[in-house]
Amino acid sequence: MSEPGLRARQPKAIQNALAVLEAAAHAGPGVTAQQISEALGMPRATTYRLITLLVEDEYLVRLPDLRGFALGHKVADLAGVSAAPALAPLPRAVRSVLADVRSAVRAGVHLARYDVAGVRDIDVDPDFPLLDEAALRATPGSSAMGRLHAEGGLGPVHQVGAFTAGFGCLALPVRGERGELVAGLTLSAPAARVSSPGDALVHLRRAVTRLEPLLG
Fold first, then answer.
1. Domains along the chain with CATH numbers
2. For labeling, which of 17, 34, 73, 128 is most exposed (least CB within 10 Å)?
3. What is the reported pTM?
4. What pLDDT, on the 0 to 100 scale, is given for residue 1?
């Protein structure tokens, strides 16, 4: 007897969803629904429906420019990429600062800690997850956040195209009471905004000023 609620068609749907994830992983960030459909020989309507469900459940993420998709953070979690011990929840004041700057810049804003273990994400923007978390973990020195750490906090530091064509990130140092580097605040956005951040840089600097007494 089958499990309650498990219908005959569901195992096939699960297989199709896994196939979509595998196709997205092979193609890399920016793959479109049409490309996935063609690669799998799957009807477009079925592909679009599965992609919509996978985005809703955060296994896929739509890129900020709406041109395609990338693997979401849940895939990285399943792969053991985020295997580091869980950190304590962020104080409410820190979460408030992050919410304010994210609302102001309308792009991905991430916060990471620097310690003896290296760079550790402590708050990834839920609306704009990291585009290629596996690659970021494999080569942290290629990211703006990693370069900021390597250069001792001489920032801002930016990179464009290291992980995803047409996208980049800009990292600002967050310092402690003695001027030591304790964290980094990163803007993740299309390349044009990273190269010429404009008002976004103003909002990021204000956020850093508010974060330093909270994190230092």
1. 10-71 (1.10.10.10), 92-215 (3.30.450.40)
2. 34
3. 0.62
4. 39
